[in-house]
Amino acid sequence: MECLYGFASSISRDLVCGAINQLRYPCYFNNLIEELEKEEGNLIVTRNDVQKFVAHANNQTRTTAEVVNHWLQDAENDIDNVNQLLKEARTKKSCCFGHSPNWIWRYCVGKKLANKTRDLEKRIQRGRPYIQIERNTTLPSSTLDILSEKCMNFDSRESSYEKLMEALKDNEVAMIGLYGMGGCGKTTLGMEVTKIAKAEDLFDKVLFVPVSSTVDVPRIQEKIASSMGYGFPENEKGERERAQRLCMRLTQENKLLVILDDVWEKLDFGAIGIPFFEHHKGCKVLITTRSEAVCTSMDCQRMIHLPILTSEEAWALFQEKALITEGTPDTVKHLARLISNECKGLPVAIAAVASTLKGKAEVEWRVALGRLKSSKPMNIEKGLQDPYKCLQLSYDNLDSEEAKSLFLLCSVFPEDYEIPTELLTRCAIGLGVVGEVRSYEEARSEVIAAKIKLMSSCLLLNAFHERVKMHDFHRNVAHLIAKNEDKVIKCELEKDATLEQISVRYLWCVKFPNDLDCSSLEFLCIKTKLEISDQIFRRMENLRVMYLDNGGWHKLPLSTMTFKTLKNLRCLILSNWVLSDISFISDMKKLECLALSDCYLPSFLELQNDGVVAQLTNLKSLMLYKCDMETNNFDVVRRIPRLEELCIINRQQEWDVYNENTIKFSNTFSVPQELQWYTIKLGSLRQDDEDDDANFISHKRTLLLSCFHISNKAIKDLAKKAKVLSIANTQGGAKNIIPDIFQLEKGDIHELNKLEICNSKEIECLVDTSNHLSEVGILFSELLKLKICKMDQLRVLWHGCIPPSGPFEKLEKLNLSNCAQLTSFFTHAIVQSHVQSTIFQNLQEVIISGCRELKYVFSANTVRGLPQLKVLKIKDCNQLDQIVEDIVPSTPDMNYPLAHQDQKQELDEIIQDEQHQQFLNPHFEPNQLEIFPESTAIPGTHSMLHFISMFPAIGL
Q1: Would the N or C end of the chain have less CB density within 10 A of its end CB?
Q2: pLDDT band at 421 (very low <50, low <70, confident <90, very high)
Q3: For the chain, which residues make up each domain, given as ranges?
């Protein structure tokens, strides 16, 4: 009987629930319309992303699977059907002579709305795998305007400019040639044309590609491809295959302008992959060259000459670069005018000379003028003697020998080569550019100062990613200067370097010659894909810097036996080699810098002998970048007596996995006494490391560990002094970072600028001062960026008392993600007691995601110290009730100023004001405030309005 009763109850319950479920169709009709509208919007967003994915694949000359195209068609059909259904649902249907809704119609249409919403959800789920999450960001058209120097409006160039723009707009003109002498401004005008063509939408795509005197087809192909955001398939390395692939991609653009800058000889478009006009009518090419003959050889339909400046135009430019104003003494103005005339109207010469004389005394202006007038023409092409003399003067006028030496060193690198600042610095120090200095750090500072001087004198250009480059005109002058000073510079990229009987001082080559006089060689770079015979090093007794780079796909063996003969070597840089051993460095008594990149070597065991290590009395900088080693015990490092810099970056391990055998610092390891600069990266905290290695190395004291055991004293000593610290998988039982790992009162991590902690499952709070009231000193006073992610047990950032000075006073960026137990930044007792804190007073950006227990973001007391806040992004915080806790209390509170008591009434009035109703909508779209209500509880009205009113910096 009981079984029958239970069965009947179950049936009754199901019937009731089913009936209630059916009633929601007519009763919640308007809600069903809103839900379908929202899901339609989500489908449109997903559809657009999939279309971008397909377009990107097409741009990469790849085809997408047919299932993707089917999904897009189904999505379009769904959107059409939804529009029809919504149109039907919005039609007013009633019964009883219009006095009540038509419930039967509502039921039928409501059911359709609910079913269609579920269909859209499934469609979206099936489409998400087709979305490409990351793509290269399209560079804004304004970028070139920022990087290039503004083009002055000179009358003498107006005609050339108008002819150029007319040719660009003429659909029958496919090839345009812009020619003029070196340094007259062809590149600058080409950049200006690029900007204007983009601004006026003359072409769908505009590409600016440097060529230079040495035609390197693979490099040109790479430049064009990267400008298009296109990447060649890894299995296609041949020039012909890449040319076909590149041509296929370029023909996808309806209207395309390719600007080839600094062309010295006829180019084979077929070999590069640039489509000819007869095959693609929308492709137009503009070349800039020094030779009219090049324009003729390339069948340019329009050839436009760019003249030099008139004397008055040259004077205007000279005044701008030399800062000649009305207040400048007349005698200096007179000298400046005469010097301007000597520059013969060439912009590059004017800029260089004027910049080096800027701010100088009158006597120096007189000396400069005398040098220009008395200079003998050099052995260079006709028409260029005067500009070369001007650049010679700019070099002579540099007031430091360090800058002059660095200028010559930069000219060793190939044309258009973007020189990494770190590489340039190491080579310059090795060559003695800055003389003998007490420490490597001081030498670095001297090199950077010389680099800045060259850039301010327009003799060196800035480039992306901590790099510099030299204008080819300046480079040619440097080679002539070096020859006159008996410091011959040779850069040979295609064949053996041959200098007959002339001794060479600096050499960059791809294959070392057998008959070259090496007795004076001080700098040697061999960048090759071939094996190198160690016999060539026997005749290089004066070599100071050696850079051997294997540019092939596979490591080649390199014998180091004869390295022992390089007694004078100061800097050794080896890249992508299999080394026989490392013991040779014990014979290099003068070696100051050893940098190994992507090399394989047995171990450092050869140096374990204290007597051997003690001989390395001059080794100050050691860099091991992604090297494979059989034995990885680095205890020997601590016995290098004068080591000041240590850089160790191991190969990337799998995500969140650290191999203990990769790099090993035992507990007996101690930090070298003179170590000032270190960059150590063991493993990776995540797959999308925001810091690339180039930026990582640029920091002075940086430590990244994917496994951090608190018992390792050596690692802790490095972490205490770090400026950038990233740690994961903290082990050893620590419940907090301070004081369980680092101490409160001894200045640990006092200089820290950036802190990142990930995947440390034992940590419950960042700082716990609850039992250390009397010991709390200055904490995190220099911290600018704080990122915490995947900390399962983290409950608060700070537990206990806060020092009066206020922590995080310089913090600018705060990023918290996937901290499932985090409820607040500070414990409640701190919030109540700390009224006038300087916490977060410089905070500009806050990003929070996946903190599902977080109740509020800021406390009321803390929030008054956030005048700089500009960015707030919150996602997946289910329990978030308020952005600011207890914004305006219902009863007077002594912790709030009177102005805040009065604000409650003002906010109530704002809520009633229709013009402010936009703030009540959680979907409002200011650029820097994002809250995702689909996964985050919507903050209360008073909280949101008060938050907005308090932070005008967000810019709503």
Answers
A1: N
A2: very high
A3: 12-130, 142-305, 330-397, 398-487
Residue 30: both structure tokens together: 């308007």
Distance (Å, whole) CA 157 – CA 823: 66
Amino acid identity at 462: N
Say if residues 450 and 402 touch (Cβ distance below 8 Å): yes
CATH topology of domain 142-305: Rossmann fold (3.40.50)
Write the CB contacts of 307 (distance below 8 Å, at least 6 apart in sequence): 156, 157, 160, 180, 184
| In 357-472, beta strands by DSSP E | 419-420, 461-463, 467-469
Provide the angle, in degrees to the nearest 10, between the axes of the packed helices 347-357 and 385-396. 20
> Which residue do the tokens 């060539």 mark?
536
| pTM greater than 0.90 | no
Q: 117: closest CA among 51, 34, 50, 46?
A: 34
Residues in CB range of 542: below 8 A, 6 or more apart:
519, 520, 521, 522, 568
Mean pLDDT value across residues 604-622: 68
Question: Which phi and psi angles does 114 have, rounded to 5°?
Answer: -65, -45
Helices 186-199 and 155-169: crossing angle in degrees, nearest 10, is 50
Query: If DSSP codes are grouped into helix, strand and coil, which group holds residue 62?
Result: coil
Among 454, 317, 434, 302, smallest CA distance to 391 is for: 454
Q: How far is CA 542 from CA 492, 520, 569, in A?
A: 21, 6, 8
Report how far apart, in Å, the C-alpha atoms of 68 and of each of 60, 62, 126, 156, 760 are: 17, 13, 10, 56, 40
The Cα 869–Cα 842 span in angstroms is 7
DSSP 706: S
Taking every pair of Cα atoms in the chain, the longest distance, rounded to a whole number of angstroms, is 123
> Is omega for the bond preceding 329 within 30 degrees of 0, making it cis?
no
Report the C-alpha gap between 94 and 292 in whole angstroms: 83
* pLDDT beyond 90 at 816: yes
C-alpha distances (whole Å) from 740 to each of 186, 407, 589, 758 are 63, 51, 44, 17
First-to-last C-alpha distance (Å) of the chain: 68
Q: Enter the DSSP assignment of 700.
A: S
Distance of CA 835 to the CA centre of its chain: 39
Q: What fold, for 398-487?
A: Arc Repressor Mutant, subunit A (1.10.10)
The rounded distance, in Å, linking the Cα atoms of 570 and 84 is 78
